[in-house]
Amino acid sequence: MTVETPTIDAPDTSCRPPQLDRLPTWRLVLHNDDQHTMDYVVETIVDLTPLNPHVAVLRMLEAHRTGAAPLISTHREYVELLHEQFTSKQLMTTIEPE
């Protein structure tokens, strides 16, 4: 006589973390400015964004040479706030989806 042992299903250990929907990111683009000094543009970038002075200089030069340079990519509300702040400093920026 054989005795059958009941089998117990093991818990599923291959659980994945739930997928989170991410908000779409938006990009703030700085445009070339012929009215203000390069120092003013760099100081404004450093004051309003988390970019360090070295990166701010690189972005300012890119905008100067090519006409536009991306500054920061993040959620829309923050990019809109930055856009308004740059506008108040009389610097031209635009917002575009990534």
Topology:
Blueprint lengths: L25 E6 L6 H11 L4 H14 L1 E7 L1 H13 L4 E5 L1
Helix pairs in contact: 1-2
Descriptive overview:
The protein contains 3 helices and 3 strands, in the order βααβαβ. The protein is of the alpha+beta class and 98 residues long. The chain has a single domain (26-97), classed as 2-Layer Sandwich (Ribosomal Protein L30, Chain: A), CATH 3.30.1390. The protein has a 3-stranded antiparallel β-sheet with strand order 2-1-3. It is rod-shaped. The N and C termini lie far apart (70 Å). The mean pLDDT is 89.
Features:
98 residues, Ribosomal Protein L30, Chain: A, alpha+beta, 3 strands, three-stranded antiparallel beta sheet
Summarize the structure.
This protein has three helices and three strands; from the N terminus they run βααβαβ. It is of the alpha+beta class.
Helical segment tally? 3
Q: Kindly state the number of beta strands.
A: 3
CATH architecture: 2-Layer Sandwich
Q: What is the count of distinct domains?
A: 1
Oligomer: single chain
What structural class do the secondary elements suggest?
alpha+beta
Radius of gyration (CA) equals: 25 Å
- Order of SSEs: EHHEHE
User: In percent, how much strand structure appears in the residues?
Assistant: 15-25%
The profile of the biggest β sheet is: 3 strands, antiparallel
Low-pLDDT residue intervals, each spanning 5 or more residues: none
Highest CATH level, the class = Alpha Beta
Overall 3D geometry? rod-shaped
Helix content: 25-40%
Instruction: Enter the CATH topology name.
Output: Ribosomal Protein L30, Chain: A
| Fourth-level CATH superfamily | Ribosomal protein L7/L12, C-terminal domain/Adaptor protein ClpS
Q: What distance separates the N and C termini?
A: 70 Å
pLDDT averaged residue by residue? 89
The spatial strand order of the largest sheet comes to: 2-1-3
